Amino acid sequence: MSDNYPVSAEVVRKYGLRGFFGSAAGAGMLVVTALVGNPIGAAILGGVFTLTGVVGLIRNKQNTKLANGLLIGAGVLGLATLILPGAVSGLALVSGLGLIGFGIFNFIKFSRGLKSRS
Predict the structure, then answer these.
(1) Does the CA dihedral 60-15-20-69 come out positive or negative?
(2) Residues sharing a CB contact under 8 Å with residue 1, sequence separation 6 or more, in sequence order
(3) 96 and 70 in contact (C-beta within 8 Å)?
(4) If exposure means fewest CB atoms within 10 Å of the residue's CB, which of 26, 35, 56, 115 is most exposed?
(5) Is 4 within a domain?
(6) Distance CA 77, CA 47 (A)
(7) Which residues contact 77 (CB under 8 A, 6 or more apart)?
(8) Domain assignment present for 3
(9) pLDDT tens per residue, range 57-114
(10) For residues 82 and 99, what is the distance between their CA atoms, to the nearest angstrom?
(11) Number of independent structural domains in the chain
(12) Sequence-separated (6 or more) residues with CB below 8 Å from residue 34
């Protein structure tokens, strides 16, 4: 994206949504990481996340497939705490921080896109 040319409103909106949902998913992963210490709570939350993601995929809306996939991934990690609590904790922490980084990167692109439109 060049600072010299205005960016379309659709592209700016896409970066804003990616930034928001990426950061929110990262925060959710950090919550799952915090709950790994209690395997029963993590398994319950993982089941809820997985069920919500599967229901979203069944509804088959094109714009929510990534979010539903992330929900299913977080849910499977929560359910896996019953089997491998240590490995899941590290993986969930790295995933959460990565998603927050992805969100921040897209927020930066969003702000640059807004600046190029003004």
Answers:
(1) positive
(2) 7, 11, 109, 112, 113, 116
(3) no
(4) 115
(5) no
(6) 10
(7) 29, 32, 46, 88, 91, 92, 95
(8) no
(9) 888 776 677 778 878 887 887 788 788 777 777 887 888 899 899 999 999 999 998 8
(10) 24
(11) 1
(12) none
Task: Please give the structure tokens belonging to residue 21.
Answer: 């949902």
Say which residue the tokens 């705490």 belong to: 81
The H or E element spanning position 98 is helix 85-117
Distance between CA 33 and CA 25 in Å, rounded?
12
Domain that holds residue 63: 9-111
In a domain, 22, yes or no: yes
Question: How many residues appear in the chain?
Answer: 118
Tell me, yes or no, whether 51 lies in a domain: yes
Q: Mean pLDDT for the chain? A: 82
- What residue type is 19 in one-letter code? G
Residue with tokens 């927020």: 107
